[in-house]
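Our preliminary data section would be incomplete without showing what the modeling component actually yields. Below, a chain of 201 amino acids is followed by its predicted structure, encoded as tokens that our downstream tools consume directly.
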Amino acid sequence: MLIHIHPQNPQLRLIKQVAETLRKGGIIIYPTDTVYGIGCDITEHKAVERICRVKGVDPQKAQLSFVCHDLSQLSLYAKQLPTPVFRSLKQYLPGPYTFILEASRQVPKILKTKKDTVGIRVPDNKIARAIVQELGNPILSASLPGENVADYTDPEVMQEQFGKLVDLVIDGGVGGIVPSTIIDFTEATPEVVRMGAGAWE
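Predicted structure:
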């Protein structure tokens, strides 16, 4: 089902509908500040597994990341952040970045890497953050299956391609084609894993 949500003023009624779908273990396609993503409530293991099946990946090897509403929610899922790291995150978030951090015990096992790390996003997108806020839990942030990102800028095309595999496709306007910049903060010096939409100094 395709639903239109206003990118600047997300309608609360529709945000509540999306959150309810996620609470029931549903999966959605939703906009971020970079590309559209496929997501679910991170506490719904069956939904996480369902996304991995859609993508054709093993959950243990998928290196999945998730979206938080803000820095205070993010800090629940990361081990104690050193002050310089926290300052960096504060400077760059919300924005087109995925930060790899040491995972806290709050992170569901299915989302942790073997190194006990986790990728976390706080996108500069009102729809994504409103959903997370209403839900009360982070949502999974995974790219859509396939290589041709240009196909995934138009929600109507995504509805045609994936409508039968997901519960909701959110139309929040035209999506981007450049993914987030990934920065690994688990070592003493931050390391750029992937240069994407976010500038990094």
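The chain has a mean pLDDT of 93. The longest helix spans residues 12-23. Preliminary results of this kind motivate Aim 1 of the renewal.
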